[in-house]
TrEMBL record, chain A:
GO molecular function (one): transition metal ion binding
Xref: Pfam families: FeoA
Identification of the protein by name: Ferrous iron transport protein A
Alphabetical keyword list: Iron
Ferrous iron transporter FeoA-like domain sequence ranges: 1-74
Protein source organism: Terrilactibacillus tamarindi
Keyword Ligase: no
From TrEMBL, chain B:
Job of this protein: Probable transporter of a GTP-driven Fe(2+) uptake system.
Protein name: Ferrous iron transport protein B
Residues engaged in binding Mg(2+) 1: 22
Gene that specifies this protein: feoB
Binding site for Mg(2+) 2: 18, 21
Binding of GTP, residues: 7-14, 32-36, 51-54, 111-114
Pfam families: FeoB_C, FeoB_Cyto, FeoB_N, Gate
Keyword tags: Cell membrane, GTP-binding, Ion transport, Iron, Iron transport, Magnesium, Membrane, Metal-binding, Nucleotide-binding, Transmembrane, Transmembrane helix, Transport
Residue ranges of domain FeoB-type G in the record: 1-160
Protein topology in the membrane: Multi-pass membrane protein
Family assignment from sequence similarity: Belongs to the TRAFAC class TrmE-Era-EngA-EngB-Septin-like GTPase superfamily. FeoB GTPase (TC 9.A.8) family.
GO cellular component: plasma membrane
Cellular compartments annotated: Cell membrane
InterPro entries per UniProt: Fe2_transport_prot-B, Fe2_transport_prot_B_C, FeoB_Cyto, FeoB_GTPase, G_FEOB_dom, Gate_dom, P-loop_NTPase
C-alpha cells in the first residue's frame, strides 16, 4: 500500500522510497528517513496540499504527490 | 586560532555562537536561519569562531549548505566544534562521522540535553566520548549552560585529534585507497576526499578539478566501476551503501550510550499542530495572526505611542531646540536647517519607531516559536499554484522586516529555479521602512481602519508576488519541485532572545534614520532652500520644485502629479523611509501643525491609497539592489528586477486610481 492510504494517526513501516524524486530522496535520507523506518501519517492539508509525517522522532512536511510514491506496510 | 562551528540545521549553532562570542546574531526556530558565514571573536580573545549554515551532510543540496562545504575545503581552521542535537542523535551523528573523517581536531557540544531528557532519552556522555574518541561537552546553548566548559576546552593548548575510521567493506576500501593514491598533491585528508567523491559531492569535485596535477578521469572511472559493482552485488546505490555502513556503526554506538524511558513526547507540539495545521483552519489562522499583529501595531500599541512622540517632536522639542539655537546666536540658515530640515525630516521618521518595535517583536516571536516552518507547510499548496513551494514563503515573511535578509533567506530553497524566482519576487514584500509611509497616510486618512488598510497592502504585495512568480515560472524549463520541510518542536520563546532580536532589528531602523536618512534629508532641505534666485527662496521656486516638477506629470495619471509627491518618490529610492522624511520637509510650513494635518489637505483618500500602493511596489531600495545582484549573479537579471517593479507599480496604481475614480471615490 502507499503512504497516503493510511488513516490519520496510523503507523506503518517504509518499504520503498526509490520512486520519489532524486532530490527529495536525498533530503529524506538527510533526515534519516530510509526503508525500514516507522512512519506515522499525521495529517494532510486540503486541495492536495502537503502532508505531515512523524518519522525518526521528528515531524516533517512532504508534498502529497511525493508521499504517494512511498510504499509502506501497516504495522 | 580559528574554530569552525558546524552542525545540523536548527540545532542551536547560532545560539552557541552568540554565547561564546558575546555578540548577537540572528537566531530562530526553523531550518535555514543562518545562510551565510559569520565571524566572531571568542571570549577572552582566544581566537575566531566561524558560524556556518546548518548541514545534514557535507554533500550540499541547497546554496547555503554549499557555503559550509566550501568553507571546509578552502579554510585552514584550527579545529571544529560540532554541535549535536541530543534529541536527534542518530541523524546528527552522520555529520559527526564525516567531520571525524575530515581529520581535524574536533570537539562535540551536545546540545538540548534538556529536551532529550524531557523526551525520556538519557545519554551516557562519557561512553559517547569514548566510542567516538573525541571530547563531548553537554550544553544548553539557549540558556548558556555548559558554554563555559567549551571556552575552557579551547584555552587548552594541545587539542585532541581523533582517529575514528569506519570499515566500509573490502571493495569500497580498495577504491578509497586507489583514489587516495591519485590525490597525493592535495593538502586535505585523502581518505575524506575520496569518500566525499564516492558520495558524489560536487563541491569537492570542483575543488579537486582546480588542481591540474590530479587525474580526474581516472578517479571518475574508479567511482563508476565501483558504483556498477555495488549496484549489482548489493542491489542498492553506492551512496546508500556508504550511508548504511555509517548508520550501522551509529546504531551500534547509540545502543551503548542511550537509555530510553517510555514517555509520550511530542504532546505539547502535537496539540498546537492539530489546530494551526488543521485542514480548514490553517490558512485562516495564519491570516488571523497577521491581522492581530497589525492591530497591535497600529490600533492598540504602536500608533498611540507614535502620536505622542510626534506631538512631542513638533511641539516641545522643536521649541526647546529653537530656544537653544537662539541662545547660542545661530544664524537663520543654521536655524532653518536644524528645525525645518533635521528635526522635521529625521524626526518624521523616528516617530515611527514605536510601531516598528511592536511589529518586530511579533516577527521575532514567530521566528523563535517554531511557527515559521508551519507557515511554510500551510502555504505550500498556494505556493505550488504559483510555481513555487512552501519554503519560498519564509523569505517573504522575513521580507516584511527587511527585504535584504528575506532575499538571502532564499538560499535554503533546494531547487535553483524556485530559489531564483523567490529572489525576484521578495522586493514586492512590504518591508518595515514602507510601514512608515503607511503609518503616515493611513493615520491621516483611514484612522479607524488602519490595521485593515495596512493588511490590505501586505496582502496585495503577496498576491502580486504570487502572480509574478507564476508568470516568471512560465519562462523556465519545468523542473520537479522539491518540498521537504522539517517541523521543529515548538518552544516557549526565550525572553532574552526575543528582546535582543527585537532590539537588533529596531536598532537598524534607528541607525538608518540617523545616518542615511539624515544625510539625504540635509541634501533635500538644501535643494528646497536654494533656488535659481538665491537662498531662502519660496519652496515652490526652489531647485527641488523645478527639477521634480518635470517628473510630476509622469505620475499624474496615478493621481499624485505634484512636485512634492514626485520628490518624495525619487528620494524613496534611497530608502523607503525617505518618502516620509522628504514629505516632512516639502510640506513643512511654519505653524502648520503636524505633517498628518498637512497631508490630509494635500491628498484625497483615493490618492492616498494609490500613493501607498505605488510606494509598496515601485522599486527595491538602494541597499536591496546589491543584495539582489549577489543572489541572482547577473547585472541583466538585477536590472530586470528593478524594471519590472517600476512597471508593475505603475500599472497597478493606474488601475486602482482610475478604477476608483470611475466608481466615484
Amino acid at each position: 500500500m502507499i503512504l497516503t492510504e493510511l488513516k490519520k494517526g496510523e503507523k506503518a513501516t517504509i518499504l520503498n522510497l526509490s520512486r520519489t524524486t532524486k532530490l527529495v530522496q536525498r533530503r529524506l535520507l538527510d533526515l534519516g528517513v530510509t526503508e525500514g523506518e516507522e512512519v506515522c501519517y499525521k495529517c494532510a492539508l486540503p486541495f492536495g496540499g502537503p502532508c505531515m509525517l512523524e518519522v525518526c522522532g521528528q515531524c516533517i512536511g512532504l508534498r502529497r504527490n511525493e508521499a504517494k510514491e512511498i510504499q509502506v506496510v501497516r504495522t | 586560532m580559528e574554530v569552525a562551528l558546524l552542525g545540523n540545521p536548527n540545532t542551536g549553532k547560532t545560539s552557541l555562537f552568540n554565547e561564546l562570542t558575546g555578540s548577537y546574531e540572528y537566531v530562530g526556530n526553523w531550518t535555514g536561519v543562518t545562510v551565510d558565514k559569520k565571524v566572531g571573536t571568542l571570549k577572552k580573545q582566544m581566537g575566531q569562531l566561524i558560524d556556518l549554515p546548518g548541514v545534514y551532510a557535507l554533500n550540499p543540496i541547497s546554496k547555503d549548505e554549499g557555503i559550509a562545504s566550501q568553507y571546509l575545503l578552502e579554510n585552514r581552521f584550527t579545529s571544529a566544534l560540532n554541535i549535536v542535537d541530543a534529541s536527534q542523535l542518530s541523524r546528527n551523528l552522520h555529520l559527526t562521522v564525516q567531520l571525524l573523517e575530515f581529520g581535524k581536531p574536533l570537539v562535540i557540544g551536545l546540545n538540548m540535553v534538556d529536551v532529550a531528557k524531557s523526551r525520556g532519552i538519557a545519554i551516557d556522555v562519557n561512553q559517547l566520548s569514548e566510542e567516538l574518541n573525541v571530547p563531548v561537552l553537554p550544553i544548553v546553548a539557549r540558556t548558556g549552560k555548559g558554554c563555559h566548559d567549551i571556552l575552557n576546552y579551547f584555552s587548552l593548548k594541545n587539542q585532541h585529534v581523533s582517529h575514528f575510521t569506519i570499515d566500509y567493506g573490502e571493495k569500497i576500501e580498495k577504491a578509497i585507497e586507489n583514489i587516495s593514491d591519485l590525490l597525493h598533491e592535495e593538502q586535505l585528508n585523502h581518505r575524506w576526499l575520496a569518500l566525499q567523491l564516492l558520495q558524489g559531492n560536487r563541491v569537492v569535485l570542483d575543488h579537486i578539478k582546480i588542481n591540474k596535477g590530479i587525474d580526474i578521469e581516472r578517479i571518475q572511472r574508479i567511482i563508476q566501476e565501483l558504483d556498477k559493482h555495488i549496484e549489482e552485488v548489493e542491489k542498492c546505490s553506492l551512496v546508500r551503501t556508504i550511508y548504511s555502513k555509517r548508520k550501522h556503526i551509529i546504531d551500534d554506538i547509540l545502543s551503548k550510550v542511550i537509555t530510553r524511558e517510555k514517555k509520550s513526547d511530542l504532546t505539547f507540539t502535537d496539540s498546537i499542530d492539530s489546530i494551526v495545521t488543521n485542514k480548514f483552519l490553517g490558512i485562516p489562522i495564519f491570516l488571523g495572526i497577521m491581522y492581530f499583529i497589525f492591530h497591535m501595531t497600529f490600533n492598540w500599541i504602536g500608533t498611540p505611542v507614535s502620536d505622542w512622540l510626534d506631538g512631542f517632536f513638533s511641539g516641545p522639542l522643536s521649541g526647546w531646540i529653537g530656544q537653544g539655537l537662539q541662545v547660542v546666536h545661530a544664524t537663520p540658515f543654521i536655524r532653518a536647517l536644524v528645525l525645518n530640515g533635521l528635526v522635521a525630516g529625521v524626526g518624521g521618521v523616528i516617530v515611527f519607531v514605536p510601531q516598528m518595535i511592536v511589529l518586530f517583536f511579533f516577527i521575532s516571536l514567530i521566528e523563535d516559536s517554531g511557527y515559521m516552518a508551519r507557515v511554510a507547510l500551510v502555504m505550500d499548496r498556494i505556493m505550488q499554484a504559483a510555481g513555487l513551494n512552501g519554503k519560498s514563503f519564509i523569505p517573504l515573511v522575513i521580507g516584511f522586516g527587511c527585504n535584504i535578509p528575506g532575499i538571502m533567506a532564499a538560499r535554503s530553497i533546494e531547487q535553483p529555479k524556485e530559489r531564483l524566482i523567490t529572489v525576484l519576487i521578495t522586493p514586492l514584500m512590504s518591508c518595515s521602512a514602507r510601514l512608515a509611509v503607511y503609518s503616515l497616510f493611513a493615520g491621516a486618512f483611514f484612522a479607524k481602519y488602519q490595521a485593515l488598510v495596512v493588511l490590505s497592502l501586505y496582502v496585495l504585495g503577496i498576491l502580486l508576488a504570487l502572480v509574478m512568480a507564476k508568470i516568471f515560472s512560465l519562462f523556465f524549463k519545468h523542473e520537479h519541485s522539491v518540498f521537504v520541510v522539517e517541523l521543529p518542536p515548538y518552544r516557549i520563546p526565550n525572553a532574552k532572545t526575543l528582546f535582543r532580536s527585537t532590539w537588533d532589528k529596531s536598532k537598524g531602523f534607528v541607525k538608518k534614520a540617523t545616518t542615511f536618512i539624515l544625510g539625504g534629508t540635509v541634501v533635500i532641505w538644501l535643494l528646497s532652500y536654494a533656488g535659481p534666485h538665491g537662498l531662502n527662496v519660496d519652496i515652490d521656486h526652489s531647485f527641488l520644485a523645478l527639477v521634480c516638477g518635470y517628473i510630476a506629470p509622469l505620475v499624474a495619471p496615478l493621481g499624485f502629479g505634484t512636485w512634492q509627491a514626485a520628490t518624495a518618490l525619487v528620494s524613496g529610492f534611497l530608502a523607503k523611509e525617505a518618502v516620509v522624511s522628504t514629505m516632512s520637509i516639502v510640506y513643512h510650513a511654519p505653524h502648520s501643525g503636524t505633517l498628518t494635518g498637512v497631508i490630509s489637505q494635500a491628498f484625497t483618500p483615493l490618492q492616498a491609497y494609490t500613493f501607498m500602493v505605488f510606494s509598496l511596489l515601485y522599486i527595491p531600495c538602494l541597499s536591496t539592489v546589491p543584495a539582489i545582484y549577489k543572489e541572482v549573479g547577473t547585472r541583466k537579471l538585477t536590472w530586470f528586477t528593478v524594471t519590472y517593479c517600476v512597471v508593475l507599480a505603475y500599472i497597478v496604481s493606474l488601475v486602482i486610481y482610475q478604477g476608483g475614480r470611475l466608481m466615484g471615490f
